[in-house]
Amino acid sequence: MNCEIRQFSVFLNASKETIEIVSNTKRCLQYKKGQELLHEGISANGIYCISSGKLKFSKIGTEGKEQIIRFGKVGDVIGFRSILSQEPVSANIIALTDVTACYIPKNIVLDLITSDTNFTSGLLNIACHELGEAGRIITNLAQKTVRERLAEILLLLERDFGLDDDGFIDVTLKREEFANVVGTATETVIRFLSEFKGDAFIELNGSKIKILNRLKLAETGNVFDY
User: Fold this and answer.
1) What pLDDT was estimated at residue 64?
2) Vertex 47: Cα angle to 2 and 91 (nearest 5)
3) What pLDDT score does 108 carry?
4) Cβ(57)–Cβ(71) under 8 Å?
5) Angle between the 146-161 and 175-182 helix axes, to the nearest 10 degrees?
6) For residue 7, what is the DSSP state?
C-alpha cells in the first residue's frame, strides 16, 4: 500500500482490493550481485516486482556463449510471461547489482488477472512493450553494424538507468557483457569504445562511462527516436 515504486509498476492503477491482497500475500526477497532470480527453461511459480537494483536477461547459445537480450530495472515485473503462456521461462535473469524484489505467488496473480481489469491491462501493456523491444533487437542484429549497435546500447543504458552523481551511466558492465549485448568479440568493443572516447563522444573511467555528445552518438547508432 505504501510502496515507494508503485507509481512505476503494474500496480499503479490497480484497485484497492488488489493492493490489499498483494500486501497480505507478497514476500520480500533479497538477491546478491550475480545471483539468479529465474533460470531459462523452468516454469515460473510467481512474479517478481523489482523494487531496487538492476538485472540482465540472457540466453546461452549452443556453444555456451552468453547473449544478453535486455536489462531490467526498478518497477519491472518479471515471470508473468511464463505464467500467462504456460511456457518455460525464456531467459536467465541475473542480478547485476544487489536486488530487492517482491514475490507474488502464481495463484494470486491468476486470480487478480480475472478480477482486476486495470491490473490485467497493465500486464498487457508490459507484454506489448517487451514484444516491441524484442523486434527492435532482432532488427538491429540483422541490419546494424557492431559500431551502430554499441552506440545505441550506450544511449539505451543511459535512458533506462539514468546517471550517477558524477554524470556517468548508473550501471557498470564489463566489456565482455557489452560484447554479449551487441553480439561481437570483447576486443571489438574495447576498440570501438576507445574510438568513441577519441571522438569525444564519451568519457571512460575504468568500467564507468559518461556520454559527452548524445547527438553524435545517436547519429553513429542511427537512432532517430532517442
Assistant:
1) 79
2) 135
3) 95
4) yes
5) 110
6) G
Check if the beta carbon of residue 5 is closer than 8 Å to that of residue 51. Answer: yes
Phi, psi of 139 (to 5 degrees): -65, -45
Question: CA 52 to CA 190: how far, in whole Å?
Answer: 30
| Helix, strand, coil share (%) of the chain residues, nearest 5 | 45, 25, 35
SS3 176: helix
The pairing of beta strand 99-105 with beta strand 46-52: antiparallel
What is the structure's pLDDT at 62?
72
Longest dimension (CA), the chain: 56
pLDDT number for residue 201: 97
What are the DSSP calls for 134-169, one per residue? HHHHHHHHHHS-HHHHHHHHHHHHHHHH-B-TTSSB
Q: Comparing C-alpha atoms, which of 212, 198, 12 is closest to residue 119? A: 12
- Tens digits of residue pLDDT in 118-142: 999 988 888 888 887 777 777 776 7
39 beta partners: none
- Do 48 and 37 touch, CB atoms closer than 8 A? yes
H/E run at residue 23? helix 16-25
Collect the ranges in the chain with pLDDT lower than 50.
Answer: none
- Residue 100: the pLDDT is 96
What is the pLDDT, as a whole number, of residue 225? Answer: 65
pLDDT at 31: 97
